[in-house]
Design a protein that fits this description.
The chain has 430 residues and is α+β, with helices and mostly antiparallel strands. It has three domains: 98 residues, Butyryl-Coa Dehydrogenase, subunit A, domain 1 (Orthogonal Bundle), CATH 1.10.540.10; 125 residues, Butyryl-CoA Dehydrogenase, subunit A, domain 2 (Beta Barrel), CATH 2.40.110; 119 residues, Butyryl-CoA Dehydrogenase, subunit A, domain 3, CATH 1.20.140. 40% of the residues lie in helices and 12% in strands. A hairpin with a 2-residue loop joins strand 2 and strand 3.
């Protein structure tokens, strides 16, 4: 089947949607394999419409891209391959990669052929990410990597990892970090699931022993990993924050998950996503309002009041997202909107966590298939604490806003100019 890319010069939503519908009419076939459909969608530019035209996009705004995503789902077609490839790795490579790296990595991201995970946090370097101790030592045109990462979402299904590793311990901690694309299939990678109180294991520990990564897979330049990581984190906070697109989907990309050969039409109803992920994907107030109407809880005045609070918070988050879009259109980089969106998402999730069980009443104590909505609200309640931690904890977001936006004095630091090797950090590596 020939891939026909639509004209990117649309000047109205009507023209944009007409082109998209025409393309879907010509190309969507539910009997295609997931991988076949994603290749058509990705190479056409509709999977990543905010990306530049020369790199598998159409240069659209995030608001326009959201319209595109909703229209694909409304049409009944399988949407773009969700996950950290599209959400984090792709935008980072577009911003910091060489043309050779973009040509090599981006096609497999937009077509869902390769899945990515984020190898950032460590047991002793979570909120203080720059204190990471995983090391990469040069060996000819390769690097040898040793270290441990933790809270790695989706590592068990990832083909590649966004790796932060220390490449120079003789400079202050922020200046000796490099950013690599690490092959997750190689020997020396040990992935150990971390089971949550929901019963699932979305997060993992990852141990790296004498792993190798090519110098050609170094992104953004040697020892410039902190700047590259900030691009990844800004996209993470915007995507996972209130008003963002998130990383939830039906079929899972990559070679390990086993979805690429399955029938695309079997995943157009949202099957394949976790219940907690599905609940978070419907984090708008409409979902809980409908539940309250169905079981009569809407007659409780306090529940109605909190549902209105939830609706208001979601609307504020939506307008904040529009401000971020306007800043991008004006040529300004990610600003405080990403951090405020992340904080807003935490507040919205906490209120949803409290409201769900109140709406369900005694049935909110049930779990599993016997619970209302097959336990989706119960699982959302149990999963809720994670939202205030992943992607940068609420406390870190407040520090960033206080220091970089409001201009408040920064917290006292002794390590700003001290070489990393001289810091007294846990079992400090040489």
């Amino acid at each position: 089947m020939t891939v026909t890319a639509p004209d990117a010069s649309t000047d109205s939503y009507d023209e944009l949607l007409d082109e998209l519908r025409a393309w879907l009419d010509q190309n969507w076939d539910p009997d295609l394999a997931v991988g076949e459909w994603w290749e058509l969608l990705g190479l056409s530019g509709w999977a990543t419409p905010t990306w530049p035209e020369q790199w598998f996009g159409h240069g659209l705004s995030r608001d326009e891209a959201n319209v595109v995503g909703r229209e694909i789902a409304k049409f009944g077609a399988l949407t773009a391959p969700a996950g950290l490839g599209l959400l984090l790795a792709g935008p980072t490579i577009v911003a910091h990669g060489t043309d050779e790296q973009r040509q090599r990595f981006l096609p497999d991201i937009v077509t869902g052929k390769k899945a990515w995970c984020q190898l950032f946090s460590e047991p002793g370097a979570g909120s203080d990410l720059a204190g990471l101790q995983a090391k990469a030592v040069a060996d000819g045109d390769e690097w040898i990597v040793n270290g441990q990462k933790v809270w790695t979402s989706g590592a068990q299904a990832a083909d590649l990892g966004m790796l932060l590793a220390r490449t120079d311990a003789d400079v202050p901690k922020h200046r000796g970090i490099s950013y690599f694309a690490l092959d997750m299939h190689q020997p020396g990678i040990d992935i150990r699931p971390l089971r949550e109180m929901t019963g699932r294991a979305l997060f993992n520990e990852v141990f790296m022993t004498d792993c190798r990564v090519a110098d050609a897979d170094l992104l953004g330049g040697l020892n410039n990993g902190w700047a590259v990581a900030n691009t990844t984190l800004a996209n993470e906070r915007a995507g996972l924050g209130a008003g963002g697109g998130g990383a939830v989907g039906g079929a899972i990309p990559g070679t390990k998950a086993g979805y690429l050969e399955k029938r695309a039409g079997d995943f157009t109803d949202g099957r394949g996503r976790s219940r907690a992920g599905g609940a978070l994907a419907t984090r708008g107030s409409t979902f809980l309002i409908d539940v309250a109407k169905d079981n009569g809880a809407i007659t409780d005045a306090t529940i109605r009041q909190d549902l209105m609070r939830l609706y208001t918070m979601n609307e504020i988050a939506r307008y904040t997202n529009l401000r971020a879009k306007a800043a991008k259109a004006a040529g300004r980089g990610p600003g405080p909107e990403a951090n405020t969106a992340k904080l807003a998402m935490s507040r919205i999730t906490k209120l949803s966590r409290d409201l769900g069980p109140r709406i369900l009443g005694a049935h909110g104590q049930l779990t599993g298939e016997s619970a209302p909505l097959h336990g989706m609200i119960t699982e959302m309640t149990l999963f809720a604490p994670a939202v205030s931690i992943y992607g940068g904890s609420d406390e870190i977001q407040k520090n960033i806003i206080g220091e970089r936006v409001l201009g408040l004095p920064s917290e006292p630091r002794f390590d700003k100019d001290l070489p990393f090797k001289d810091l007294k950090v846990g079992t400090q590596a040489d």
